[in-house]
Specification:
Elements (H helix, E strand, L loop, with lengths): L1 H6 L4 H7 L2 H27 L2 H28 L6
Helix pairs in contact: 3-4
Length: about 80
């Protein structure tokens, strides 16, 4: 079943109808929340200070979104793996 899906080639129009942009946005936000909570938890364990952990998590929330956007834009310029 999974191998059959891997062999099936799709194009942008098919891909765009299989998952709506709003779903992708919701997944992005939920993943960022999970990642930030992870960072806050690790920071709290390492520092023992909730305030410091929340500060690190807050900064990380913003910087990771900016880095991800730049990463995506850069990958759009790379031809590797495209036809």
């Amino acid at each position: 079943m999974i191998l059959d899906q891997a062999k099936t080639k799709t194009n942008y129009n098919q891909d765009s109808t299989s998952e709506k942009p709003l779903r992708s946005i919701a997944k992005t936000i939920s993943w960022r929340i999970v990642g930030t909570l992870d960072t806050i938890g690790i920071s709290w364990l390492l520092t023992g200070e909730v305030e410091t952990a929340l500060a690190i998590g807050s900064v990380e929330l913003v910087t990771k979104m900016i880095l991800y956007f730049g990463h995506e834009r850069l990958w759009n310029k790379i031809k590797f793996g495209r036809k």
